[in-house]
Amino acid sequence: MLLRLHKLREGSWAMVPGISLPRSPKRQGTTSTSAHPSKAAGDISSVFPSLSGAGSPPLPPRFADLKRRLLQDHEDRVTHSWHRLLADLRKEIVVIKALGSKVIPELEFRDMHNMEKRTKFRDGLRKRGVGLIRGVVSEREALDWKELAKRYIQTNPSTKGFPADNPAVYELYWSPSQVLARAHPNLLRTQAFLMSHWHSANKSAHVSTSHPVAYADRLRIRQPGDVGFALGPHVDSGSCERWEESGYGKGGVYSDIFMGNWESYDPWESSCRLPVVSDLYNGPGGCSMFRMFQGWLSMSTTSAREGTLMVNPLLGKATAYFLLRPFFQPRRGSIEALGPAFLDSNNWSLEDKTTSVLQGAVPSNCQELNVALHPHLGLQDTMIHVPQVRPGDYVAWHCDTIHAVDKTHAGKDDSSVMYIPACPLTEANAEYLVRQRETFFGGTPGPDFPSSVGESQHLGRLTPDFVMQNIDIEAQRAMGLARYDASQKGLLEGERQTLERANRILGFEL
Asked: 65, 284, 345, 360 — which has fewest CB within 10 A?
């Protein structure tokens, strides 16, 4: 149902009758809101040199030292591992070229409890890292949200977006459409279902995949003919951080890869990711949340070459490749001069002299990839379109998945989505919720996003009292607005402790 847009100014939470919630809860060991520096101003191009046109300066010498440390005393193992990886990639690329979008598993929302269908979906998801859940919300509801978003933008002409002259991606985080979509019970169920495919080697790890956490991201309404939002292959949640000891190294996420045993790397293991710092440089758009999946909810019918998503379904093998690529160099020639012989493993060896180069990685930016820097991935063939989506469909991809956007929207209708990832409840994610909750109160961009006045003066923005009266308790918890029930039956001990700790972090006394 469409909401009537009228003047709803944000007020202090403390002034909402019957609601008592601390604005800046603190606990021992928790970083307060003020300790996190604000992000620089910007838009979605801020973390993509290929979009912003910003150059990629050479990395400082300390990255050469880092690369030497990562391979020290096991260079031979890594070299053998690299050659095995190249051979495996050659075989996989043949499969992807032949099957294209058919490798992406699909499941109807209504079939999530059908064991045969969900098992088939599970196998495809774990292998490819991408999945499509159809009919998460009704087509009518999704289309209504789009119309509501368009009215919100028209009512508030100060809304910024990218490209600035003809926006496709809007700097909106708290529009009624986005708040209501994140709170929809079907979406929360879908997120929990998807995250259930992760596992934890540490059974007492403080993580709950059955309690999705809301992450306020942007929305896109891309018009036919647009060529400005031509976002190439990339991976979010950091770039240099994936090699750094103080980044992903804090959890040893990629240790098997750097030790020369990429086959043992498990992209679905969650406990190693809990200590990770994925935004060391406070980039304006760098993600500090642990998102198990990135995702979007479709608000349009969109097919290939109509401004849709493209993904690389090689998952762990692609991750191993772009992490090992900086350590190796061709012995001779170029792809233009040698053709396929350039890619032969015999033509590649460890760097003669260790450089600081991390192909496609720039501090404060996302990890970008291209054919020239990452030739063995066959990106021209392995970046495939997701199947046609309809309003109400939800597309999710593993947080390490390489993805991109159609360079040209050659369709006849808009290509519209709300970016809604799937985030588990962890202590770090609860701490982020505290800061994000403050931005909800004020109508400003979420903590990970470029600083601005945002929607603080927008008409039609939902107030806290509306949210508390119109979304259910699970959605309130996902936004950090209500206490988790740590006494519910069926919780594992690690899950129960996670809920208790989240309550303390969020300012709800036990």
From this structure: 65
